[in-house]
Amino acid sequence: MEYKVLATVFIAVFIAELGDKTQLATMLFAADKEVSKWTVFIGASLALIVASGIGVLAGGLISHYISEKHLHYIAGVGFILIGIWTLIKA
Questions:
Q1: Percent of the chain as helix, strand, coil, to the nearest 5
Q2: What is the pTM of this model?
């Protein structure tokens, strides 16, 4: 296992997920006193695992057609555009 990659991915995803809509929705579900916190935790965890799996599969598929260098540029431009859109909508 590549521990440097593991740590990098963990930190990047962890920071990206803090305070986003997914975390807020999970907090709202957990706030219900009649709902098991373990059920909310397991449901949210499974959802993140499936979403991440889709991302990994899509990235693997796309990498067969587009070089890693170009994917980095595309991702960078995408993040910049999302940031600009977020600033405009704020």
A1: 80, 0, 20
A2: 0.71
